[in-house]
Design a protein that fits this description.
Layout: H1 2-20, H2 22-82, H3 88-124, H4 128-164
Helix pairs in contact: 1-2, 2-3, 2-4, 3-4
Length: 172
């Protein structure tokens, strides 16, 4: 609210100044416009920084989940090696699960790089309204990727739990 009154007061002063000295009034109006543009730039930069931070946090959470899944898979492999009598089918399932986990890791790395490239491109955008729209779209895309990753991880976790059950471990 203070900002509004400050702009209102500044506008009033500029209009008075314009009446008295039109050239100086234009200069003051230009300075006010410059100030507003810098404020918009600072606000947009803050939004970009927040988007980066959210993406980093989301990526950290996804990495931790993948690491837990990898640990469970390694545990399964270890158990399977100790129980050499397990059928070939279970080994094939473990290999497929490992491939899916590797694929998820690769997809996350690609998404991380794409997001960073998008953020850099958005940061270079000159049009503030277009920059804001692109940032909003990127945030939507990030949420979609996060939901997709969560769905894939849940499916992978369910598969791991099914594979753990035949090895004598209770399923969760």
């Amino acid at each position: 609210m203070k900002t509004f009154y400050a702009f209102l007061f500044a506008g009033f002063l500029i209009s008075l100044y314009c009446i008295a000295d039109p050239a100086a009034g234009r200069a003051a109006a230009d300075q006010l416009e410059e100030f507003q543009q810098e404020q918009n730039k600072a606000r947009q930069q803050a939004e970009i920084n927040q988007a980066r931070q959210r993406e980093q946090l989301d990526q950290l959470q996804r990495d931790q989940q993948l690491q837990r899944s990898q640990q469970q898979l390694d545990q399964l492999k270890q158990q399977q090696q100790s129980l050499r009598s397990q059928p070939e089918q279970q080994q094939q399932q473990l290999n497929q699960t490992q491939q899916r986990l590797d694929q998820l890791n690769n997809e996350q790395q690609l998404n991380r790089l794409k997001t960073e490239l998008d953020l850099n491109r958005i940061q270079r955008e000159q049009n503030p309204s277009r920059q804001k729209e692109q940032l909003r779209q990127l945030q939507i895309d990030q949420q979609m990727n996060l939901l997709k990753d969560q769905q894939n991880k849940l499916q992978l976790q369910q598969d791991l739990n099914r594979q753990l059950s035949p090895l004598g471990r209770p399923s969760r």
